[in-house]
Amino acid sequence: MKCLQNKLAINIWVITLLLPSTMLAQEEVDLFIWAGQSNAQGWTGDGAYYPEHEQELDSAILLNWTFHGRESSGGKWGPMQAQRGRYAAGHFGPEVSFGREMVKAGYHPAIFKYCLGATGLKRDWKAPGTGGIYDEMIEKLKLAIENLEQEGYRVNIRGFVWIQGESDAGDEAAATAYLENLSRMIDHLQEEVLHEPDLKVILGVDEQHAYVRERPIIVHAQKNLANEDQNILYTSMYGLPKADATHLTPAGLVQHGLRIFNAYQLLAENESAETPASTFADSWEYVGIAVEELGYTRWPCELKVDPGWRTHSEIAHYVGDSPEGPFVFSDIAIKREMGETKGKAPHNPTIHKVEGGYALLYIANDGLKEHPANQYICLSTSKSLYGPWEKVGEDGVILRPPTSLNYWNYQASNGVNNPALLQHPDGGFFLYFKSEKARMGLAVAEQLEGPYVQLPFPVTSNDRNIEDGYAFLYKDKFALLTTDNHGMIEAGGGILWTSTDGIHFDQYEKGFHRINAYTTIDMEKAAVHYGPMGRAYAKFERPQILIMDGQPAYLYVPSGTNIYGGECTLSYVLKFK
User: Fold this and answer.
1) Phi, then psi, of 306 in degrees rounded to 5
2) Cis peptide before 326 (omega within 30 of 0)
3) 374 falls within a domain
4) Given phi > 0 = left and psi -120 to 50 = alpha, else beta, which region is 549?
5) Residue 503 in 3-state DSSP?
């Protein structure tokens, strides 16, 4: 069936080329220039898996393709299809799903695709005018535009998609020069070649690639360009399925094309805006200190954060006259249990009003031996915020790591920790948690007290550390607000993950900025109690949201940095604008 479809596509292309220009529609086409290395090309996009869904749209998409120094369409335009080379049925990249979405959005896309895998911007594409792949692409691009015009089309130049950077990340000098080289190439394309200074540009690189993880300067360069120019947008490839360490699977290529389409739509929608589209992170404003208690972090300040939190934590109750604080100490809700081998130091609480009372969830452990693998999640309930708090079940424990080796976090090196509770709108309870490789998991129960049954797979697809999730409903979706420890978007910030079913969180945006973005800080005078000394920013931890009238109202966040220079850490409060 696949072979027959490919033959039909080729026949349609041949027939189209044989038609005289007077028989072609005299209409506009929307030109998109698509360039880069292997994931732009679709190196593992086996044509045998060419997406059949909505394939009828392909006849409305024009394609001119070249794999530099290898196969090409010979400079000719034809309908969207799998391209020759790599596999018996050809291969395809993200341009297929991108083009189809463009058709549905009312465009008449003409995609000029010029790619080659394992190529570096500095080494292979080179600076304009120096005889690299870029210069050859520009030569072919000009001919392709002339061909469209000779066929009677009016060409609207819409955008440039650049998916590249892994090769430059493999070389220190190339990585260091990447920002300058990429900026120069884009400027030349906009100003000197296309004479479109406001040309929309979409950038991307495989953040999961080993070279890019080693030298994230490539990601920072692309993000910096996007932050400085409202016509440029950075797109992420995180979580897309991969066929190997470098290349996306056919399904991953389809998803990537959808992300690029969504990015272009954002650029098009904000064409007249003076600033980029805001994110959830932009909705917060700094209020001040939520909790500051002399001598305590909620373990004695004379102890370092680590191992203090593992051995001497306790959960305290603070009271304020308003949600903006300040809050003062009232009582101890969950005490630390003493002992030689068991710490059970309760830590990282979250509290919810449930069924006429209150549910207080937290983590505990069995002492420093085998820590942090021995962490687990507990629940205590009370009719009053002032207690008494009663542990449910056996010593309050409601979730431990799974005993089945088929589960994603079997024998997890960090146990199960950092609970986030959500009362499902259709009944029952969703308990989110962090576990192996700092991904978020999910356990469900019919009743608050459990039993909680864990799902065998994680609900987030991150490969960099996130933690401290807070679960809530937002704009008719399930939401998780987590920290962004190592820069999926910005190291030290936060991520808002969203899902339509509460089980697969495949969409995300920036959830909160670093503290420095909300208030003026002199980092030389700030006291860093936890985290790298000399870091240029202060990082929030363990976000908790106060929901009022069904909407986020306040954000409470502790930090290992006291921005005012005190001897203990602080908790801060921000308000939703």
Assistant:
1) -120, 115
2) yes
3) yes
4) left
5) coil
Cα separation, 393 vs 139, in Å, equals 72
**565 and 525 in contact (C-beta within 8 Å)?**
yes
Residue 284 CA, chain-centre distance (Å), reads 19
Number of neighbouring beta carbons within 10 Å of residue 224: 16
End-to-end CA distance of the chain: 55
Q: Count the neighbouring beta carbons within 10 Å of the beta carbon of residue 425.
A: 10
Q: Pull the structure tokens for residue 243.
A: 């066929």
Per-residue CA distances from 237 to 206, 241, 278 (Å): 6, 9, 21
DSSP designation for 56: G
- Residue 2: the pLDDT is 34
d(CA 177, CA 165): 11
CA distance 523 to 535: 8
Number of independent structural domains in the chain: 2
Domain membership of residue 355 as a residue range = 280-576
Amino acid at 389: W
For residue 46, the 8-state DSSP code is B
Is 129 a domain residue? yes
Paired tokens of 448: 């608050």
pLDDT of residue 343: 55
Which one-letter amino acid corresponds to residue 159?
G
HEC readout, 139-187: HHHHHHHHHHHHCCCEEEEEEEEEECCHHHHCCHHHHHCHHHHHHHHHH
Q: How far apart are CA 525 and CA 428, in angstroms?
A: 48
Structure tokens at 90: 């050809």
pLDDT for res 338:
65
- Closest CA relative to residue 150, chosen from 292, 333, 22: 22
Strand order in the sheet with 570-576: 284-291, 570-576, 551-559, 544-548
Overall residue count recorded for the chain in this entry? 577
* Phi-psi domain of 402 (left: phi exceeds 0; alpha: psi -120 through 50; beta: other): beta
For the CA atoms of the chain, what is the radius of gyration? 27
CATH number (domain holding residue 482)? 2.115.10.20
Q: Mean pLDDT, consecutive 10-residue segments, the chain of 577 residues?
A: 34 31 60 96 96 95 96 96 94 97 95 96 96 97 96 94 96 96 96 94 94 93 91 88 94 94 86 62 94 88 84 94 92 81 80 95 86 93 97 94 95 96 96 96 97 96 89 96 91 94 93 93 89 85 96 96 91 95
pLDDT for position 313: 92
Burial class (CB in 10 A: 0-12, 13-18, 19+), 549: exposed
Examine the domain organization and report whether 113 and 169 are in the same domain: yes
215 occurs within a structural domain: yes
CB-based contact 133:84 (threshold 8 Å): no
**Residue at 12 is within a domain:** no
Model-wide pTM > 0.90: no
Q: Are residues 298 and 428 located together in one domain of the fold?
A: yes
The SS3 assignment for 483 reads: strand
Distance CA 540, CA 538 (A): 7
